Amino acid sequence: MMKKVIFFLMAPLLVGILLMPGFSQEDMEVVDNEGFTKKQRPPAVFRHDEHNEKAEIEDCSECHHIYEDGKKLEDESSEDQSCADCHDEQSDGKKLGLRKAFHTNCKGCHLAKKRGPVMCGQCHVRS
């Protein structure tokens, strides 16, 4: 009897833990800007799943890239890391600084595809 009670208490907890990674970015509303010591603008509005669906992005490494010896590694993803884990606030000559990395990746894609916001206030919305 006690085993059944423990099972019915533990099963929902285990299911919740197993499903959590699948929903980790679902509620994302803004780009993480914790890597900046001096925040000049509010964080960029970014609804992760809505963006990727609209932009038809299925490959996570398209944005969450990993570079080795100056070359992008295909099929390698950094989605379990913050951008600030690899990019310092300022450029060091080898890696782009965090602000430049965001703008190059996001704004660069928008310009190349001629879709999406490119002006400061379109992403960094003041409330």
Any key phrases for this structure?
3% strand, mainly alpha, 127 residues, 5 helices, Cytochrome C3, 39% helix
CATH class: Alpha Beta
Rg, nearest Å: 19 Å
Q: How many DSSP helices?
A: 5
From N to C, what is the helix and strand string? HHEEHHH
Q: Which residue ranges are poorly predicted, with pLDDT under 50 across at least 5 consecutive positions?
A: 20-25
The CATH architecture can be named as Alpha-Beta Complex
Helix-strand category = mainly alpha
How many domains would you count in the coordinates? 1
Number of strands: 2
Mean of pLDDT = 85
The CATH topology annotation reads as Cytochrome C3
Query: Sheet with the most strands?
Result: 2 strands, antiparallel
Query: Helicity level, as a percent range?
Result: 25-40%
Put the structure in a nutshell.
By secondary structure, the protein is mostly helical. The chain has a single domain, classed as Alpha-Beta Complex (Cytochrome C3).
Describe this structure in words.
The protein is extended, with a radius of gyration of 19 Å. A two-stranded antiparallel sheet has the order 1-2. It has a single domain (26-123), classed as Cytochrome C3 (Alpha-Beta Complex). The protein has helices spanning 2-19, 48-54, 83-86, 98-113, 120-123, and strands spanning 67-68, 71-72. It is built from five helices and two strands; from the N terminus they run H-H-E-E-H-H-H. With 127 residues, it is mostly helical. A hairpin with a 2-residue loop joins strand 1 and strand 2.
